[in-house]
Amino acid sequence: MCLYLLFLLCSLEKNSLSSEFSSLLSNTLTSRGHERLFNIAFVFTVETGFIPISLEEQFNSTDSNIKLAKTIKSQPLNSFWYKNNENFHAELVMSNQLCHLIGVSINGSLIITLIHSNISKCINFEDDEIISSENIKNLFDLSLKYKNLVSVPVKCAIMEITIGQYPSLCGVPEELISYILTKLKPPDLYSLMLSCKKMYHIVINNQLIWKKCVIEEVDKLPGTPRLPNHISDWRLCYYELNRTIKCNRKVVERVRDY
């Protein structure tokens, strides 16, 4: 069972990367060495909502980053940054604030730093972390690590300065939201669905999460109950299963009272 849940989690992570950014990331695989690593960091940063300075007039940080990905995909990635010796530099904008993405080559590593006037965050990309197109799981892990340690903290600091508050959960990259969902219990999922329309659709349409909930409930039942072969709506299945379990408990309690 644990292996099966692990499979579900991996499938969720694999499917959580948007097709546009997956396609854009595949373009990074055509480069080599540290240039490849910097391209990957650049794409992760853009996916978080940072805008290349050359596209500042066409986009802002609240626009769809999917449209931004399509625009970037139409141009060579190295046209958005420049290289000086073995160091890389890209200028990006977040909420009208200029930021610098810098990659410094040290031996076999590339130190990636995202800098704003009031904050800077860095991460070390090793050569052996170069991602192959066949291993999307490693790409997700690297994306999650980079955003947790670098791009999202810088984004939060800038948003706090410019609008006086941290961005909401809706502003977090979707693969992070999907990962958060795996840690929530069904009552929390229902509460999140009530928070806003976007969260409602993200939660209700995530069949893998609800399938996981159904399997966990079935495992608690006595015997070895079998699920139907074809279930199109796992959330509805969970709802019906949970309602049936509660009804049976009430019947048992009434019998005991007699």
From TrEMBL:
Coiled-coil region list: none
Signal peptide per UniProt: 1-18
A Pfam family it matches: F-box-like
Domain F-box: 166-213
UniProt-listed InterPro entries: F-box-like_dom_sf (IPR036047), F-box_dom (IPR001810)
Keywords of this entry: Signal
Record-given protein name: F-box domain-containing protein
Organism, scientific name: Aphis craccivora
